[in-house]
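W.,

You were right to be curious about this one. When I first looked at the sequence I had no strong expectations either way, so I just let the prediction run and decided to look at it fresh. Below is the sequence, 332 residues in total, followed by the output.
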Amino acid sequence: MVTFLLRRLMAVVVMLVVIVVVVFGIFFLIPKWTGVDVATMYVGKTSSAEALQGVREKLQLDDPIWTQVLEFFKGIFAGRTYSGGGDVTHCAAPCFGYSFKNEQAIWPVLTDRLPVTVSLAVGAAILWLLFGVAAGVLSALRRGSLWDRSAMVVALSGVSLPIFFTAMLSLAIFDYGLGWINSGYHSFGDSPGGWFQGMLLPWITLAFLYAAMYARITRATMLEVLGEDYIRTARAKGLGERVVIGKHAMRSTMTPLLTMLGMDLGALVGGAILTETAFSLPGLGQAVLKAISDRDLPVILGVVMITSIAVILANLVVDILYAVIDPRVRLA
């Protein structure tokens, strides 16, 4: 197990290095190769020549590529000092960039909004795992029944309906219509009860989409697993149905679900833009939307970095869970 973990940790380190290089290439090299002045992407095309030159000096855009990459790495782990245009700006580690438009480092902006997005993603994940997996297992065990058909119709509706539609519909019914839930966002520190009530509809709305997908995947995988020889052998040995399903069938069924969960959670940490916009949640999705509107490139770069790191870490957790569920994975 220790060897397996060390291999995975080494792979994570390599992937992080690759991610940093790729992100740097996307935001700095590709625009340069296509003839776009990177400085204008930081301060705007209407800025003066002096301001553009100052940003070029601060970002060291005229230096060799490898020097720029090393400075980018250095900023993440040790901080970075931007000097040029007559002033000096220090960005403390981890420095994911600096917004010259708003005169602020990106990391504090991200950490201020990250808890909202993480709470949205984790809360919704708990709901979609509970209801999606349970519905999928029951549908597989009662194949062809009224429950199976009804659950799959609901699942198909959840996959088909756009999330902004279900968000607006849930607000119209449960908040504006019936008044059962107050969807306004509250900080957890200020009011835990208000925070829970404000997050409930976003959790349900986001979970409805993913629970539908997980239910369909769970049903299909469970039906395939139930036809395997070792399941028939377990039943022939006289094991109870709860043991056969809970201990043997579910172990194999969870493998593809964990893969999906790692990717979905990692991606959602980068911001559920539609859900956050519909419910006015001040998360990373809203930050990205505002950055795109304001053409504030460093914020977009920072969110891309956060999302990439979140996907890598989520998949590391999934690999560890694989090893716990199926010891054969440790030999891979």
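Here's what jumped out at me. The mean pLDDT is 82. And, maybe more interesting for your project: The longest strand covers residues 80-84.

Coffee later to discuss?

I.
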